[in-house]
Amino acid sequence: MAKKNITIDDLAVMVKKGFDGVDKKFEETHKEMRDGFSAVNKRFDKIENLVLASHQKRI
């Protein structure tokens, strides 16, 4: 296979194509993480309320 000379412009286009869509993937991952942490926070809130209610009954 013959070697093809790659110019700086060619390289820039290749790098750009490699990074296209990365920001969208990060946004999707960020949303999934935010939703997951939100669900965990809700569960901890329920547990906290149960523990506080139990302590108030004892006091």
Descriptive terms for the model:
mainly alpha; rod-shaped
Tell me what you see in this structure.
The chain has helices at 8-19, 22-58. The model has no long low-confidence stretch (mean pLDDT 89). 0% of the residues are buried. It is rod-shaped and about 85 Å long. With 59 residues, it is mainly alpha-helical. It has two helices and no strands. The protein is 83% helix and 0% strand.
Strand-residue fraction? under 5%
| Tally of alpha and pi helices | 2
Number-wise, the strands total 0
Largest sheet: none
Low-confidence stretches: none
Oligomer: single chain
Order of helices and strands: HH
What is the approximate shape? Answer: rod-shaped
Rg computed from alpha carbons, rounded to a whole number of angstroms: 26 Å
**Average pLDDT, all residues:** 89
What's the topology here?
Blueprint: H1 8-19, H2 22-58
Task: Give a short overview.
By secondary structure, the chain is mostly helical. It has two helices and no strands.
